[in-house]
Amino acid sequence: MNNFSRKNHSEKNRKRRKKNEDSDFYSKDNISSRENNRFSMKSSKKHGIKNFNESDKVRTNLSSNRRKPLNKSKNEISTKSHYLNKELVNNKNFDDWIWGKHSVYEALISERAINRIWCTSEIFSSEKFYTLLKDLKLKGVLIEEVSWNRLSQLTFGASHQGAALQLASSKTISLEELIKFSKTNSTNPIILALDGITDPHNVGAIIRSAEAFNSKGIVIPQRRSAGLTGTVAKVAAGALEHLPVSRVVNLNRALAELKKNGFLIVGLSGNGKLSISNFHEKTPLVVVIGSEDKGISLLTQKKCDFLLKIPLKGKTSSLNASVAAAISLFHLTGN
After folding, report:
1. Residues 195 and 311 in one domain
2. Which residues form the RNA 2-O ribose methyltransferase substrate binding domain (predicted)?
């Protein structure tokens, strides 16, 4: 019995020891695993911070790399625009321009030939300029009220003081004077009326042909037409000095006035029903020539007594306005 009890007691002690050893082992494992976890978390945090710093550095490098070409391109654009603006100023011929309110005023009272005037509303309504500008408008000078910024654009930033003008290469006369002049020199005069021809080269070439075929004058509207600029005078090759030009406020009213004074109004049109070679009227004539792209406006066509066409035999459907004018004058003066 004693032996059995001793054995049981020793076995119990053994089992207790084993349990304690196992528990110690597991607790050590837990402690080590916790330490490992702490270490791994610390290292991961460190790595995370490092990675974040590295990624941040990459981002900043990329952004700096991106910013540099943008700044470069902005500088390039600004320099390019600067040189382009300079080139435009050099290319634009300002020989026939006057700006500055005192200079403009002196040009107005000296009765120089003027093509166009730009001014601000303050200048236009001022006591000094209002009467002068109103009289010039009635004489056919194109006057535009523009903003200060628009005037700065037109003069490329010059000190314009709210007023600028472009001189004409020749003085214009009133429609009444043109009618009187044409009838005193010829029984069947021919006058050309230009509708919407804005290209100065075409206007200059038409003036040259008109003078060569003994036309008695040209009628041009204030708007939608090239004025008597230096380019027009150059292309006209001296013809502008021998051919009177009347600049009217409204072309259709001018045509009605010419009709009252015995002129027959004929228009050149690709849709005309009568060929110019079959037209044989012996009377004072006004030949209306429209622009190449739009031709004679519908309202002006209604004012015409005849719409004449130039017969074309090739595949080309239309002619240059100055060429059409020369051909029509050749046919009409030959009759």
Report:
1. yes
2. 97-173
